[in-house]
Amino acid sequence: MLADKFEADRAMVRETILSHTDGCTEKIKELRFLIAAVQTFGNVDGMCLMAEYAMNEFNLRDGVVDRFSTLVGPWQIPNEIQRNRAEFHSNETHRIPLSIASTQYDKRQLVMEILGRCEPEIARHQGIRVGLYSEEKEEIDDRFNRLYVGDRSFPCSEERYVLADAFLAGLADCLQGEPIGEAGNWLAALGKHLPEEFATPWERSGELFCSRHRVERNSCCATVTASRATFIILYAVEQLLK
User: Fold this and answer.
1) Tens of pLDDT along the chain (242 residues)?
2) Is the peptide bond before 195 cis (omega within 30 degrees of 0)?
3) How far apart are CA 79 and CA 44, in angstroms?
4) Which of 111, 130, 144, 238 is a Cys-bridge partner for 116, taking CB atoms 3.0 to 4.6 Å apart?
5) pTM value?
6) Which three-class secondary structure state does DSSP give residue 132?
7) Which residues form a coiled coil (predicted)?
8) DSSP for residue 177
9) Which of the 8 DSSP states describes residue 58?
10) How far apart are the C-alpha atoms of 37 and 104, rounded to whole Å?
11) Closest by CA position to 195, among listed 217, 212, 222, 215
């Protein structure tokens, strides 16, 4: 199943980039891309609960231009069996409890953040301003009204999310070359348990981790996963941009 998705994602990335750039390397460098990483409390009887969400916006010229991450909650799970499973998964992986006392976004706020970056033009018409798209102001710009904006008309289906390694392959196709061979294995290792002393060449002193995971350098952290994936992609195509 993932092999089929990989090929479909690779083709979609390639076709989308070429349609915007005609294969011009300088134009490809200007395109902005979003990469997301998620940590969950596991698939609880068909219900996937989000623990942490992170996004990086980047291009091939400047690298990372915007970062966003948050813990998501709190979650109320009335079913004791489901709750115990989720808590066990939390304790064994990212160590984020189901109930977060601070530094959290609820689901509505998170939807606004994601969609405001994925579809900024549509978001602007609905009064949503986030990240790099928060500078322009409408005549009526009321925070209270924003909280009641729905997410209708946002094209946010699962097909629009592509695998990171498929994105890298499609990008390399547009640059008429191959990414470095180790990149696929590096991407596959992200989000899993790694030695606490593990660090990529692009990070120092735990700076890429969220505040919750920075002390113990928990590699399940979604924030560090998004940043590491971004840097791997940039490094993997560096020679193709010259």
Assistant:
1) 688 999 999 999 999 999 999 999 999 999 999 999 998 887 666 677 888 999 999 999 999 999 999 988 778 888 888 888 888 888 888 888 887 766 567 777 888 888 888 888 777 777 788 888 776 544 444 444 444 445 555 555 667 789 999 999 999 999 999 999 899 999 998 987 777 667 777 777 778 998 888 888 888 899 999 999 999 999 999 999 98
2) no
3) 10
4) 130
5) 0.84
6) helix
7) none
8) S
9) E
10) 16
11) 217
Nearest to 191 by CA among 232, 223, 225: 225
Whole-angstrom Cα distance, residue 129 to residue 118?
12
Evaluate the CA torsion angle 202, 205, 207, 211 in order and state its sign.
positive
151: which DSSP letter?
-
Residue with tokens 């890429």: 208
CA distance 226 to 212: 16
Sequence spans of domains, the chain: 1-240
